[in-house]
Amino acid sequence: MGRRPVGVREVAARAGVSRQTVSRVLNEHPEVAADTRERVLAAMAELGYRVNNAARALGTRRSRTLGVLASDALQYGPSRSLAAIEARARGAGYWVSAAFADAGDAAAVVAAVQHLVSQGVEGIVVVAPHARTLDALDALQIGVPIVTLHASGRGMRGLSVDQAAGARLAVAALADAGHTRIAHLAGPADWLEAESRAEGYAQELAARGMPDGPVIVGDWSAASGRAAAAAVRDLGVTAVFSANDQMALGLITGLREAGLDVPRDVSVVGFDDVPDAEHYWPPLTTVRQDFDELARRAVAAVIGEAAAPRDPVRPVLCARASIAPVRAGRPH
């Protein structure tokens, strides 16, 4: 048989205090002396005591739980954000309860939020890359603090990485290498971040007095990037800004199959800086998003810490080997 979990009684005996004092320490009561608190915490650590959040909630009317609603957790950005939110919440002494809903089903989004509220969550972070999710949320009276991520800053609740600024960094890196015929491999039209990255692409071209470039729409997958290679070849462009790293990976493969070398014939820049990006061949120049900072701001906002900055998080360019100057004799 397994050993019975350590309880408040054992902690109190080890620390030489009453069970009521242990409960006060657990519930962060302000009238516990500092040395007593330290003694109780040390006893918990020595005995391997684990806090029972459900039991503590009964006594404090606080669940110490945050809700996370994800409408699409399969792509790198949303999934990375979920992990970062959980880590930040745990570090602040909170648990995370997650719910998932199809962004295209408004009733499912509403039901997921209501489910989280029924769990007694103290705030909700919504990973909302689709406009449809925001529309469903706007119709709700939720009653707890709520923030949205991956919505490109849309709405009053939104926290985001500056997607358009990241796209401009990518296009600028290609233009600075001498490229003037730059295509955009875009993400799906119903994703807010794909829309913002396409806007940034067009803004940087316009700011440099360059004509609009061709836009090829993918679906975030490497397979769609590989399929786009034929269009890139036929268009005769010398550079491509891909809206994510996975499509860039597929594009590089497809270009090689078409007899084109990256970066000698076509330069490629991605977006996200997935962990494998520096191990692509060639290592991929890409735009890095600070998901940890985004999660820090989101958790701070919903638990009522000092006001989290609402300005977008600035992305950074990770320069690697997938860009080369335009080859002599090849049209720009």
TrEMBL record:
InterPro entries: HTH_LacI, LacI/GalR-like_sensor, Lambda_DNA-bd_dom_sf, Peripla_BP_I. It comes from Microbacterium commune. One of its GO terms (molecular function) is DNA binding. Coiled coil: none annotated. The keyword S-adenosyl-L-methionine does not apply. Keywords: DNA-binding, Transcription, Transcription regulation. Gene3D superfamilies: 3.40.50.2300, lambda repressor-like DNA-binding domains. The keyword Hydrolase does not apply. This is LacI family DNA-binding transcriptional regulator. Pfam families: LacI, Peripla_BP_3. Residues 6-60 form the HTH lacI-type domain. It comes from the Bacteria. PANTHER family: HTH-TYPE TRANSCRIPTIONAL REGULATOR GALS (PTHR30146:SF109), LACI-RELATED TRANSCRIPTIONAL REPRESSOR (PTHR30146).
